[in-house]
Amino acid sequence: MNKISFGTGGWRAIIGEDFICENVRRVAKGISLLMKEENKTEKPVIIGFDRRFLSENAAKWVAEVLAHDGVNVWFMERSVPTPLVMHTVKDKDLDFGIEITASHNPSNYNGIKLIIKEGRDAPLEITNHLEELIATVNDVEFTDFAVAVENGLITYIKNPFNKFLDDIIGLLDMNALRERGLRVLFDSMHGSGTYPLLVIFHTARCTIDTININKDAYFGGVMPAPSERSLFTLRNQVVNGGYDFGIAMDGDGDRLGIIDANGKYINANEILCLLYYYLVKYKGWRGPVVRNLATTHMLDKIAESFGEKCYEVPVGFKYISSKIDEVDAVLGGESSGGLTVRGHIHGKDSVYAASLFAEMVSVTGKSPSEILDELKKEFGEFVMVEDDMRFDPAIKPVVQKTLMVDKRLPEFKDEITRVNYADGCKVYFNDGFVICRFSGTEPLLRIFAESTNPVRAKEYIDTFKKFLFD
């Protein structure tokens, strides 16, 4: 029986190999045991699911186990984005929520994300203990879903989007949006974020057209992540259709990508910088910003210009949301595409982020590229390069020993100012950084580098790769 491990975004596994009914029920039983240990079985658990293959089935498998163990379940009547489950846990003061999703992973993956009180990602100490509990589980008993519904142990949640939508709309400058009358093209990437974004943009009197909104277990043959490579269709249609910009979300609505009117891909780092700059300069918010180790240092420069600080935390959104609370930050995010804003939920939410982005364009009267040009003129140009490498599992302990135990480093051309081993190995230079770490959700070695010179950033990565694998 394979060990079930939770990474930075929950448990994720290949469908038909490890993501099977037996293992899903083992995870559910582990959650039930965790709830009983913590004496938190009185409140319901809300269960949501995205549009991936087997997501609704898996949600029912989880519900059947919890219902058998006497835990009341609130079950979403339709697929929903992860941010909605987080919002519901926070709004209803629940102790636990569950979303069946593999987020932006390839279509042959699925997974389970555990959400705890206040709508937060379950921290490492909880998921580590959950893994221990799951390891003790063998045969799992459950109650048939229909029987559990009939007996009142499972209750369908009708109209689950209402409070989520109302809260986001209440945070936006709807008058500015209505006056501007934006034309937007939305690529939902066949994910579960479609409905809430359409409602918000229609309420704001925006013209919003859509592509890829149907349910597709293969996500149209494209990775359900809003990367530059995956948004070629959106780019072409935004330019040819004369839209103000295009929006794309990943499979469960917590990662965001933007295409400007001129076809420029606005990456996650740039979105973070734009929104922080907008909230502080144009809306008058005050406070620091939070980013993870692999996110642009332009945020540091912007924060400094406003007399604020940028806080750096390990990879994993739980660290970002925790630091936001601790320092009352305006927003926090990561280069992989997720962010949250003060006063909203404690996890990534691309529905709110996309809506706020539209507000920014409406209020400033400028395109995203025009605002970006202003930032580059004031703070300099920061170029990030990424290289993801799939690896033989046998290599992982060797690389970890080299970097984290022996603490050996390549010989870089530039002077090293400091090294951080909090999450992988991050090497800082006067002109940028390079970080090497293993993904917490996929069998990938991720190497990120940033510099004011794109050639130099690529050299940082090549130097690291040669050192580790040649």
Query: Which structural class is indicated by helix and strand composition?
Result: alpha/beta
Nearest-integer average pLDDT: 94
Q: Compute the number of helices.
A: 16
In percent, how helical is the residue content?
Answer: 25-40%
Task: Give the low-confidence spans.
Answer: none
Shape: globular
| Rg, nearest Å | 22 Å
Task: Give structural notes.
The protein starts with 10 loop residues before the first strand and ends with a helix. α8 packs parallel to α13 (350-364). The longest helix is centred in the N-terminal third of the chain and has 17 residues, at 21-37. β15 and β16 (339-341) form a beta hairpin. It is globular and about 65 Å long. The model has no long low-confidence stretch (mean pLDDT 94). The strands form 4 sheets. Strands 1, 2, 3, 4, 5, 6 and 7 form a 7-stranded mixed beta sheet that branches. The chain has a 5-stranded mixed beta sheet with strand order 9-8-10-11-12, with helices on both faces. A 5-stranded antiparallel beta sheet has the order 17-21-20-19-18. It has helices at residues 21-37, 55-68, 82-91, 124-135, 145-150, 162-171, 174-180, 194-203, 232-241, 268-282, 298-305, 317-327, 350-364, 368-379, 395-405, 454-469; strands spanning 11-14, 45-49, 73-76, 96-100, 109-116, 120-121, 154-157, 183-187, 207-211, 245-249, 256-260, 265-266, 289-292, 310-313, 331-333, 339-341, 383-390, 416-420, 425-429, 432-438, 444-451. The protein is built from 16 helices and 21 strands. 39% of the residues lie in helices and 21% in strands. The chain is an alpha/beta fold and 470 residues long.
